[in-house]
Amino acid sequence: MIREQYYWARVTNVARTALPAFLAGEQTPTEAVEAVGRGLGPAKRADAAWMVELIAERIDDEERAELVEAVRSEAGSA
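The structure assignment produced for this chain is given below.
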């Protein structure tokens, strides 16, 4: 049970981090996950890429634009 919770917590964190790069059209879900999820095994990478696609399908254009803009502004200020 705890192991499964850890698995999905890690997958979710990687998907959240990879999502903006995918939404900006810079990378595919798999590429975005690989860029931030170094050290993940193949199952976690696949699940995180699936989660990125799933989240992207469910957000509207306004939310998408806000996420992309937030990431770009953070990158510009860093």
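Interim note for the steering committee: The chain has a mean pLDDT of 88. Residues 5 and 11 are 10 Å apart (CA to CA).
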